């Protein structure tokens, strides 16, 4: 483990992202100026959003939108509503979106937005007013050929619909290509809702093949039961895997013989909470160290760190969340022979189908679910093979190989434009 990895085994997601970008650009032979350009978003907006609450009071929320690099095309990425949203996190997440777009070869740069709030404690109408207020605050800097938002943590197709409606009113024309992750009736795409989980499933299947395992009967632990985690549990259970553990923000369940996923899906609320219904629960930390073959962190960042990496039993870790494993833990897992499929590859299914949605909106011609799923599979299997092959050839771990792949297109585009 090298010194830089040790220093960034912290909660600083931006610093760890910058560290790997620097390494990746170094491996690719780019000059220092390229790192200077790509280490921070080109634009970062902070907005204050006044919202009339149901009790008549006014609350002022803070929101962000980061646009990392638009050398390849308009920036693209989700908007999260969460109490822990911070400027640094949004910056790092926008860089990750650039890398994801590079990995699956989309004509986009990365963007990301966030609002510091807790939608779990707000009414439906308060969330609507907040969503509309955010769009009013950033309407000058976003748009179908500038920066295209999408869902992320605790945002969904209803929120995208309000945002689209607000944007269309401001612009005075219908603009379904302004935002992705919309409801189908407003120009959404088949397969978008489950796209992130489909992408993770494809990566799990590819990793299983590389490790010579069989998905039939493989024991899986999934941390997180939100959009990605819940669909993933269903897809993997349907393909014969045994889901032995799941967790939500409040606790975890573990059952050696496998959990009843259909029952849990039926009982979960819209924020992915289900463990509150049970008496005997574990903590998230305990679940991560339980026996399994495949571990999928699909919740929040910094879950596998130097403290627990040596105790992880899985031989495959597929990162469905953004940044669940620190750099130090990545090295520990690699030393122990664990195959780690990094977040920017495993979670690229969402933005891939968002791109399909935007293409359909631009051409006004809509595809079937089968067409979307077929194209997604082709894109992600190709991306997995590409990165796995690069990791083998250059004798680096898959995270560094993914960063090398993800950064290359935007570095080349920046060079051609004469920026560096
Ligand atoms: N929020 C998702 C992500 O982090 C999707 C972004 C999008 O669809 O543009 O990849």
- Taken from the alpha-carbon principal axes, the silhouette is globular
Question: Gyration radius, to the nearest Å?
Answer: 20 Å
Q: What's the architecture of the domain at 195-346 in CATH terms?
A: 3-Layer(aba) Sandwich
Small molecules (ligands, ions, cofactors) in the structure: glutamic acid
- Overall pLDDT level: 95
- Determine the CATH topology of the domain at 195-346: Rossmann fold
Q: At the first level of CATH, what is the class of the domain at 195-346?
A: Alpha Beta
What structural class do helix, strand and pairing data support?
Answer: alpha/beta
Extended strand count = 12
Content of β-strand: 5-15%
Secondary structure: helix percent = 40-55%
Q: Helix count?
A: 15
Distance between the termini: 32 Å
CATH H-level name of the domain at 195-346... which superfamily? NAD(P)-binding Rossmann-like Domain
Extract low-pLDDT stretches: 1-10
Please outline the major beta sheet: 6 strands, mixed
- SSE string, helices as H and strands as E: HHHEEEEHEHEHHEHEEHHEEHEHHHH
